[in-house]
Design goal:
Residues 4-40 form the Antenna complex alpha/beta subunit domain. The chain has 89 residues and is mainly α. It has helices spanning 6-9, 12-37, 41-46, 62-67, 79-82.
Length: 89
């Protein structure tokens, strides 16, 4: 055990309940925060179907906006430069 000497300072009958109690308090705090700070939790508990998210369409055509930009750096004009790979570790 990496930290086995901790039990020379703290008795296991005291340390283990404190550790497990701390884990339980943190878990309950996180669950309470999720239940109180989300808008969908009440709907989920009531059995309602999830609402669909609205899909936003881009206002600019992506094909037209990227056609004017080069696919590689202007300083790298050779095909060999575009196909270079990072060295493997």
């Amino acid at each position: 055990m990496n930290n086995g000497r901790i039990w020379c300072v703290v008795k296991p009958t005291v340390g283990l309940p404190l550790f497990l109690g701390g884990v339980a308090v943190i878990a309950l705090t996180v669950h309470a925060a999720v239940m109180t700070n989300t808008t969908w939790m009440a709907d989920y508990w009531q059995g309602n179907k999830p609402r669909r998210a609205e899909v936003q369409t881009p206002s600019v055509n992506v094909a037209q906006s990227t056609a004017d930009q080069p696919m590689w750096s202007p300083s790298c004009r050779s095909p060999a430069c575009r196909l270079t790979r990072l060295p493997s570790l």
